[in-house]
Amino acid sequence: MEYQKYLILDLETTGLDPINDNIIKLTTTSFKDETFSEPEIKSSYFNPKTKISDESTLVHGISNSELEGYKEFKFFAKSISKYLENSHIIGFGIYSFHIPILMSEFLRAGIKFDISKINIIDLKILYERLRPRNLQNALKDFCSIDIDSFDRKTDEKSEAILELFLSQQSDMSEKDVTMESILNSSKNIIDNDGFFSISESNEIFFAKGKYQNQSIRKVKKEFPDYINWLLENEKISPMVKMIISYEN
User: Fold this and answer.
1) For the chain, which domains are there?
2) I need a surface site. Which of 2, 8, 223, 243 has the fewest CB within 10 A?
3) Which of 86, 136, 142 is nearest to 115 (CA)?
């Protein structure tokens, strides 16, 4: 597919639940080519008709009273869907939040948003590739230690790991992050139900169930009855069904 433009996507929302929360502000910065010159910025506000969480208002500063004069997202859903089609969509962490909450909004509006017609460029994934999560970079970030290699005949590496651990413990304490929360966190899960995870090559896999660690594409091809069961099951969330439908 030939993509027509590059779009940087940014959203402000009523909360952090990509299924039940609403978009209250959508901003795109568009470029016609890879020179990324002459950017065009467009912002739209929407009345969610539901309470914006206090936590979210503290982050983006937008209150319900400021949105009383705006229409709901559903009135613009069709035109937004068309505008996003055939584009490279750029954002930070958009696989896990921006795209899912957009899909939920389109679903509520009765608009089919074909995710196969966009190319997602997640800068969070790019960042992790450009700055590998290795010991050397961790030591730079947390301990201000710049080292290319270790003398493996000595205890230099072990001492460096100890210093890193102590430094991270201090950082965790300052940010009120517990070791338990780290151990219980789910890596690369892209939906609230924990059905799917995304690989480093951006392919979506089942994260649980009888076909755990198998790609959606493979399961759709080899086990269509299971896919039909998921799509017809009323207890399966709309987000899961949309991801299944649009992953070719």
Assistant:
1) 5-126 (3.30.420.10), 131-184 (no CATH), 196-246 (no CATH)
2) 2
3) 86
